[in-house]
Design a protein that fits this description.
single chain, about 260 residues, seven-stranded mixed beta sheet, binds S-adenosylmethionine
């Protein structure tokens, strides 16, 4: 049953991978010319990662993985989408930067990798594809060295409660049910091609409890009233690279960030 759910998501992300690679949204031209794909929210948490071993979970086609490699990190990155990983490898060859890319579903990672890292990094649009956060955090802890860090930057669960146009509350804040949607893509909102996705909303207490129970100590927790990505409907750009939902203005959280330590 779960396998079918993940298999459906894998196919949907495969459909998206190729479109995303050439999209204006991901602006690969600027990336290839040397621009980092990382935003100030995660850059501020990352600090100097030169020489650090980084595990990038759910890396899509690798822009952020390769941005961290350009910063001097020794990066291993994985994703469920074989097409996205192919594209990540192509991108690495194009820019001449090294990273180790692996195709695997998150929960299968322990079957294909047996190493520990200084930093476990995962951002924007990742947790929603995973039903069981206790298992997510246990795996993150397994792959993080003692004394190592976890950085999670994620869209806020409040933002996933609304209908597509942000007119009314449609979904639960809490992880009560699997949500199945038909969606084009955040890079091309008018595309006719629809993908079927299965996802789950995760309250902040669910995320934090999972991390604490897996042995992490939360060092920083931040909430932001903007998104660095223009990936929702009815948005306005309030300043360069900062987007809000028009009718919500600054009144709701859109993104949160956690830095956690795996203590000695
Ligand atoms: C929204 S993207 C992440 C975006 C990334 N922050 C970026 O901007 O490039 C979500 C990624 O999660 C991957 N994914 C979805 N379900 C997964 C799973 N069960 N295991 C591993 N990766 C998964 C998708 O293939 C996709 O590449």
């Amino acid at each position: 049953m779960e396998k079918d759910i993940f298999e459906q998501n894998r196919e949907s992300w495969n459909n998206r991978a190729e479109v995303h690679y050439d999209s204006d949204f991901y602006n690969n031209k600027a990336f290839i010319e040397g621009e980092s794909s990382l935003n100030s929210i995660e850059l501020d948490l990352l600090g100097n990662i030169k020489g650090q071993r980084v595990l990038h979970a759910m890396c899509h086609f690798g822009q952020d993985s390769l941005s961290m490699a350009r910063m001097g990190g020794e990066v291993t990155a994985f994703d469920i989408s074989d097409k996205a990983i192919q594209k990540a490898e192509e991108l690495a060859r194009t820019i001449g930067v090294k990273a180790n890319f692996i195709t695997t579903s998150y929960y299968d990672l322990p079957q294909v990798l047996d190493e520990q890292f200084d930093l476990f990094f995962t951002t924007y649009g990742v947790l929603g594809w995973l039903p069981d956060l206790d298992k997510w955090a246990e795996i993150a802890a397994q792959f993080t060295k003692t004394g190592g860090r976890l950085i999670l930057v994620e869209f806020h669960p409040v933002i996933w409660m609304y209908d597509d146009q942000f007119q009314k509350i449609e979904y639960n804040y809490f992880n009560e049910e699997m949500i199945t949607t038909e969606d084009s893509s955040y890079t091309d909102k008018n595309s006719e091609v629809k993908n079927r996705f299965n996802s789950w909303n995760h309250s902040l207490s669910e995320v934090m409890s999972a991390l604490i129970n897996a042995g992490f100590r939360i060092e920083k927790f931040q909430e932001f009233n903007y998104s660095p990505y223009d990936c929702f409907s009815n948005t306005k750009e309030i300043s360069k690279g900062k987007f809000r939902i028009k009718n919500f203005d600054n009144k709701v959280p859109m993104v949160y960030a956690i830095e956690a330590l795996k203590p000695q």
